[in-house]
Design a protein that fits this description.
Blueprint: E1 4-9, H1 14-25, E2 30-37, E3 45-48, E4 51-54, E5 56-57, E6 69-72, H2 76-88, E7 92-95, H3 111-114, E8 124-126, H4 130-146, E9 148-157, H5 163-179, H6 210-222, E10 229-236, E11 243-251, H7 257-265, E12 270-272, H8 284-287, E13 293-300, E14 307-314, H9 318-332
Parallel strand pairs: 1-2, 1-6, 2-5, 6-7, 7-8, 9-10, 12-13
Antiparallel strand pairs: 3-4, 9-11, 11-14, 13-14
Helix pairs in contact: 1-9, 4-6, 4-9
NADP nicotinamide-adenine-dinucleotide phosphate binds next to helix 1, strand 2, helix 5 and helix 9.
Length: about 325
């Protein structure tokens, strides 16, 4: 079997470090890893695969040594500048940023949902937004069976979704609460400790945030239904890790609730936790460090003729980013 060379761009970040962790859990035929970050991290040592790796600065020459694959988790501007250079050097890029997600010739992949689209790539494959990934894992089997007519998303998103600065804002808020001291914010426009911010990414002219727009557009692209009715309200909550989502779904076809629950139970990547009598439902603290999407609170929406409410929770750094990217890599290998 061929042994591949893999570049990891953004290896020092929240997602990058999780990628290293997930790779350590796998046994992929990769003979060489190179870890890249910005100039500020050059020389930093990271322990990976029982060895010490030295972080290298990402430059225009970084891909000359011939990588088979690169996983980028370094934001949109880095992806826009360096992914095309990597592709020109014969490397296939899996990008975690939103730089290419809506490009017509870039597949937007969640392996449980549309892995067949990977082969259409022209060098770049996009990883969807974290909140979209966990939602479509749950929605795809229901769409196949009952045809989704409309989706209403309400999200409760962890601070790790905003990278290391988001985590720092919550940590500083907790420390300041116990010491009664002032603190400055690194990421969010308001304190996140003891607060909920109905504001993720920038506001658009239509009143939605970019995060909400991403969920709407990416869901349509992944489910291959450009006219699907989708709306979203995305909220940052003071939780360190794992996004929770309330998803209201309206179907074209009638459904039997037990049949719907069994469909979810038998679908890839999903763990159903749906026993409200025993207080069992998906929770952020339980989904953290897991690769699956947890679904519960499954109940009929009595306000419409065929609708259901779901509570969907997943580790946004694993399934929402690192695990999904590595699952794409595994499929390509
Ligand atoms: P993060 O913790 O802030 O890490 C950013 C990473 O990018 C760091 O390794 C940083 O290196 C690197 N970087 C920044 N500028 C660079 C440059 N000019 N050249 C090379 N590397 C550079 O952010 P994150 O949460 O890991 O997110 C990374 C990407 O994944 C973003 O596009 C984000 O939207 C996406 N994503 C995040 C999540 C999530 O839940 N967090 C989920 C899905 C997708 P230094 O340490 O040297 O600055």
């Amino acid at each position: 079997m061929k042994n591949y060379k893999l570049a990891i761009v953004g290896a020092t970040g929240v997602v990058g470090r999780c990628i290293l962790k997930v790779l350590e859990e796998k046994n992929l035929p990769i003979s060489k890893y190179v870890l890249f970050a910005s100039s500020k991290s050059v020389g930093k040592q990271i322990s990976f695969m029982k060895e010490n790796y030295t972080i290298q600065e990402l430059t225009e020459d970084s891909f000359c040594e011939g990588f088979d694959f690169a996983i980028f988790s370094a934001g949109t501007s880095v992806a826009k500048k360096f992914a095309p250079i990597a592709v020109k050097n014969g490397c296939v890029v899996i990008d975690n940023s939103s730089a290419f997600r809506m490009d017509c010739d870039v597949p937007l992949i969640v392996p449980e949902v549309n892995s067949e689209d990977i082969k259409a790539n022209k060098g770049i494959i996009a990883n969807p937004n974290c909140s979209t990934i966990q939602a479509v894992v749950a929605l795809k089997p229901l769409d196949d069976k009952y045809n989704i007519k409309r989706i209403v998303y309400s999200t409760y998103q962890a601070v790790s979704g905003a990278g290391s600065k988001g985590i720092l804002d919550l940590e500083n808020g907790i420390n300041a609460f116990s010491t009664n001291e002032d603190y400055s914010l690194n990421k969010f426009p308001h304190p996140i400790f003891s607060n909920c911010l109905p504001h993720i990414d920038v506001f658009l002219d239509n009143g939605y945030t970019k995060e909400e727009e991403k969920m709407i557009n990416e869901t349509r692209k992944i489910l291959k239904n450009p006219d699907l009715n989708v709306t979203a309200t995305t909220v940052r909550v003071p939780v360190f890790n794992s996004h929770s989502e309330s998803i209201n779904v309206e179907f074209e076809k009638e459904f039997d609730l037990n049949d719907l629950i069994n469909t979810l139970k038998n679908s890839p990547g999903i763990i159903v936790q749906n026993d409200s009598k025993s207080n069992i439902y998906p929770m952020a603290i339980n989904s953290t460090n897991n690769n699956e999407v947890f679904v519960g609170r499954i109940r009929r929406d009595f306000s419409i003729s065929s609708g259901v409410n779901l509570w969907v929770v997943a580790d946004n750094i694993r399934k929402g980013a690192a695990t999904n990217a590595i699952q794409i890599l595994e499929r390509m290998i």
